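Subject: Interface between my chains keeps coming out wrong

I've been trying for a while to get a sensible model of this assembly. When I model each chain on its own everything looks fine, but I need the whole thing in one frame so I can look at the contacts. Pasting all components below, labels as-is. Any help appreciated, I'm running out of ideas.
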Amino acid sequence: MNSFRGGTGGRDSLRQVSTEPADAQVRTIRVGLLGCGTVGGALVEMLGERGDDIEARTGIRLEIGAIAVRSASKNRGSGLSGDLLTTDARAVVADPDIDVIVEVIGGIEPARELILAALANRKPVITANKELLANCGQELADAAAAARTDLLFEAAAAAAIPIIRPLRESLLGEDVSRVMGIVNGTTNYILTQMTELGADYADALTEAQNLGYAERDPTADVEGYDAGAKAAIMASIAFGAKVAAGDVYHEGISNISAADIAFANRLGYQIKLLAIAERFETESGSGASEYEIGVRVHPAMVANEHPLASVRGSFNAVFVEGADAGELMFYGRGAGGRPTASAVLGDLIDAAGNKIRETYHPVPGGPAVPIRPIDDQSSAYYLNLEVADAPGVLAEVAGVFGAHEVSIRSMEQEGLGDEARLVFVTHEATERDIQSTLADLAALDAVHGVGTMLRVIS
Amino acid sequence: MNSFRGGTGGRDSLRQVSTEPADAQVRTIRVGLLGCGTVGGALVEMLGERGDDIEARTGIRLEIGAIAVRSASKNRGSGLSGDLLTTDARAVVADPDIDVIVEVIGGIEPARELILAALANRKPVITANKELLANCGQELADAAAAARTDLLFEAAAAAAIPIIRPLRESLLGEDVSRVMGIVNGTTNYILTQMTELGADYADALTEAQNLGYAERDPTADVEGYDAGAKAAIMASIAFGAKVAAGDVYHEGISNISAADIAFANRLGYQIKLLAIAERFETESGSGASEYEIGVRVHPAMVANEHPLASVRGSFNAVFVEGADAGELMFYGRGAGGRPTASAVLGDLIDAAGNKIRETYHPVPGGPAVPIRPIDDQSSAYYLNLEVADAPGVLAEVAGVFGAHEVSIRSMEQEGLGDEARLVFVTHEATERDIQSTLADLAALDAVHGVGTMLRVIS
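Reply #2:
Try treating it as a single job with all components included. I did that and got this:
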């Protein structure tokens, strides 16, 4: 196979350069790229633009050795030699002249099979594939550990925002209790438009689709599946737990109305779709600390003073709480070709350096930790009821909360002709208790409608 | 020397544990701690609390082998064996039973000499010493490179906020144009109190001193020296440049009045003390890109919509702009014993793992880049003049701006009895031009007073 940048000779070639890397020798690392869509194409461009700078800073020449695509005949833009393109991805991962694999095909198969083959050949793998990691992450991590090579995936959680490396390295000694993020730009854009322009959900979605922020079929974004996959990845890394996409409880934003947002704003909150991974300490019989993990995605009311409340438009942010580090937040672009490729490139340089130094980043282990069902997780809640405007109704409603031991933090009443709207914010209660409360409230004759229920984050 | 945690036998001892690290073998790494003040003490406590968790996740047992202190007789709190304490720091860095050195003494000497000795002995070093790194960073980096061992200092830039590792690893392939941070909690606390309570500078400083956020002699914080040291470190890492504390232009916040803050707020800005490291592309004769670096610390007006504007109280944040990653922000606790120790612990686990795998993180190189003097750097500016309330004054004032080719973006006039206040925001201009403009304005008879000049960030 020809190399993308010619003239450097064979594998492991060393050549002198006039700039001054640490040991004045440049090592060439040949990259096998699987997939050349938005992210892969951006990566190829960036390697063309920055290859010399990267070489000057690291002593590593990153060279595209092969690009596996579905159709080799498509025009892939200028600067890309046709000789590099192949439709035989299996040959790329098996090629002894390829040192590192970058997987940006997406989806489960054939990505899974190709990554496993690459790892079995002791080739480090960089992937941006959140769906694959959220479903088969443990299998891939085990394969990387067995091969003692790198499996890096910074781009899979929040694209350009460095969150995996900080969680996996900087915070490895920290007692992290909660990781909470706005990790889907489409829904944050929609909610921001609804908040700032008073737009309806349907109109904001249509605009997001017209701008290319949302897909024609927006289900994966608006129903929280995309955020759920990222939540599973972040929970696995933050807590060393084995969390898969199926373990994540999720609700989307399609039920949120302009009225809900206006109410939230009036009470001092922003509505955000949050991915939350939380660690709960439990008392074991022996008195030793044991843990459970809760992982969920749902819209939430976030207090205006909270750093996540000011994350607007298509920006993402991940908020981390640690016993000693305190509150941390990582903010930036969580999607897009170039931001995603930027994270892939950081991982690629890292893996290339490790390959040259014959080392790798071991994946931190952790004991198997049970997943706590959503019913047993606690939160404060916002509830919104339409009730008959008659004496005794509030007492009856309050009685239902009391019967389920849900304590009311604040209540606001508003006249609506011959009806009234009651807006409640509760103290912490379990999901089970709030759901029973809602069911009993809906059964009351005086309650004409039960509006959106939202968890409250302060 | 006795070890902090007994019973594990000699150096390099391996023992089986019931949890499941990757290869079911635990390696012990002995830590030599230089200094046991707030940060060192917190680190010792955290190793006591988390040692088992860290071992379960990494297979590494971190053991304090020796603690060098100035006075061994002081009570260092419970859990700390007196046998570990020594006043002979040189013996600790020379001790073949010590694998890794953590330096939290602070100041230039003896910290510099001890770190160089440790690196010469091929012991990885973790330091939180911003003063030393800002003044002698290049010497230490060269020594680490020569010894092919780790010199890690996440804690030195913004304590618990992971910023060095993301800049050095995640963003190594990124074209970073600017790093801009609120990196001093004392001044941000003072400015927040002035903003939210309308407090005077002197009162806010006194309160910060009473709460322990500011020193009795607050000069290092309020005049920007502390932020300047951090700016030098971040510039060096972000741009691979050799920037020392002396290269940093700095102004502090002691001139900022409650009136300046009220004006800024009215115009839609917050006043923040910013540390800014910027890379400027210059045209070389050959047409190739060349660069200059500008590093400066000064108060600035930050537009309310900017993510840095909402960083309140003693919190810190670093905002990074990259060509492809886009805008990133890292937010958290930039000071304090436990937050700083948390960052040290992350580095310590990293260095211990590298030591075991016989590898290290090479320091990215970079060409020598000239420092651009402050006079040649550009910004938008806010100016505030007290002038005679008479016809023709505005024309005269505007003429001075024009003579220096400083273009006015907005002007606001306010009556003050028989005087008027003119508030200007300019378009981008060089510092040299704005300073000449200010000098000429001050010389006008109609100008009775020139108020605070502030750079404007949008």
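Reply #3:
Confirming on my end. The longest strand of chain A covers residues 269-283.
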